Fold each of these.
Amino acid sequence: MTETLHRLVYYSRNHTSGEDAVFSAHIDDILAKSRINNTRDQITGALLFNAGCFAQVLEGPLPNIEAAFERIQQDDRHGDVSLLALDPIDTRSFPNWAMGFVGTSSVDAERFADIGSSSGFDPSRLSGDQIYTLLRNLTIEEEADA
């Protein structure tokens, strides 16, 4: 029997401080561990960081994404972790991304400027669907550019 896939969307506030090099090392660590864990746990998704906040979409078997979300909530680098959506899905939107990281370049910033300007990229003012659509559009463009 095949497990039903689910999509989880959340945002959190960055609790990592330090100079750019220190911050970059923390992000690299988050991504490296997430990619290993997500591959093992059959989770796909994408992560966006901007203006002191993380927004993420996780897709996979429900017990696996719930366990990943629990790890995120326990991680001191994330604060004010807020679940925006948890829904069953028929197919993955991020099948090639164990953990895509998008939205950090100046080109990406322009791509989601309309959402950023309407919310100040305050994820608490965005719905799970808006964050999902934003990340999906960014990964489609990243894949096209690759």
Note: The chain has one domain: 5-145.
Amino acid sequence: MSTGPTPPDPVPDPASGAVGEPVGGGADAGLQRWRLVLGAAADGAFGRGGAAGGAGGGGVLDATGEGQDAALDWLYGRDEELQRRGVRRQQGQAGGDGPSIVTTVDWLDQITRLFPKETVERLERDAVERYEIHDVVTDPAVLARIEPNETLLRAVLRTKHLMNPEVLQQARRIVEAVVRRLLERLATEVRRAFTGARSRKPSRFRLARDFDVRRTIRTNLGHYRPAERKVYVEQAYFFSRSRKHIERWQLILLVDQSGSMAGSVIHAAVTAACLWGLPGVKTHLVTFDTDVVDLTDDIDDPVEVLMNVQLGGGTDIARAVTYGAQMVEQPRRTIVAIISDFYEGGDPHLLVRQVKSLVEQGTRVLCLAALDEQADPVYDPAMAQRLADVGAAVGAMTPGELANFVAEQVGR
């Protein structure tokens, strides 16, 4: 049969388009991708026993493809939507060159061997978040093998109450590894935000980031050698930077720890740790649901902060803002950043009044709907509008953008 158009770029979900490139050879790669997307229900459409060979997969899948099909079926075969549509999967059957997939450990071993890294991370995310296969992060044997990533970190935060001390210690390895990577990346952004703005005044400090290309080339044009097409630099010039200072500012981070805000809690904790100790900034970190927990004492250790977070429960934003308002020392030198979806479970009128009071006394109030790398805002638009109407700045910021905002305020 004709292969038709090339399948779309992969999304590792059989229901939505692709599962990564098949690793094996021999069979038609395009047909294999479509067969993996469509599952066993499409075997008849591919002509069972076709020229591509193989015992399963309608003759389309090679040995590696059958292994991929079994691994995908182990996960997506439990989808209730397929059952409602009468699509039968062959869940639990093995394929190709691998043993039968029985346990989560076996499945993780299979997908790590058969799929590219980005597909493995998507499959792990679907296992934890879509199908709630908790033993991905509560089974010691699984934790010992798994590669730490942000998806698993969010899963650990949601399920650590299910873990015994031994498992919790292994889970901490995931938290530490992911936080370390985030700290390395965000610390660079924060340092850049606080280094100061370039001035036109020359500097005697020779730093690559401050290299004055225009002046250096202009001054050394007399040393241009046409035959070599090169300018020989005898004198290099560098910009100086103006100091961002000055009077001490407070940054009070109020972070919603309800279940949907896991990504925001992670990035808020890491951002707070990056800002901690910077000249001119006094940072506080407070998490809340219906209760308020001040984690400022642990702010320099984001791993400890995250291990103390309890995701889930209700939301009382007004109570958190009331607590934060009591921490303000100099209103006109304070930023209160509320990170939440703004679905208020407490008193909405009190929340609006408290935010209005902060704004009127000169405090800068940021209402941030998300604080992860995508900054994908999911929030109550009606409440967000009410807060904007009383003077709060409402929107979404990545950690780097928040650091830049704080640096701009401190440098005024």
Note: The beta strands are 198-202, 224-225, 230-231, 239-241, 249-256, 281-288, 292-294, 334-339, 364-368, 393-395.
Amino acid sequence: MSEAMIPLKIAVLTISDTRDLDTDRSGALLAERLEAAGHRLVDRRIAIDDVYRIRAVVSEWIADPGVQVILTTGGTGFTGRDSTPEAISVLLDKRIEGFGEQFRQLSFQEIGSSTIQSRCLGGLANATVVFCLPGASGACRTAWDGLLAEQLDSRHEPCNFANLVIPERGQHA
């Protein structure tokens, strides 16, 4: 019998100039998926697509020992207001290069060459894992189902990001 999954404390930030908690389908999907997987949603917010507002919320969560994982959705495209990668990349201690690459590979099966416009990214900051996802609910579903569900499961072998943020595992930075 395998060991029990260790639930993680996850915060979700939607970056949008037009959504609120009632109309935020992507944030709601991520919250639903993470809770269905046995994790705990510790905070969920909306921030306008502004580098400093995004950075302020994410910095607060990175500094909070009660947040182990941060999922953002939105602001990863190429329009003038899309600024999530610029806001978040400077906060990361280490980047997870393979996350964006693997996401685009999975996404290509669904949206073809349009996936090259995704600037999603992942990284580690102060023993907190951060993943920045596109704003489309389909993209969030692809990221969660294809990558994050396994990588945030402490039982996934041969390695996972959950074990980096679980203090009792002794591997966190």
Note: The first helix runs from residue 25 to 36.
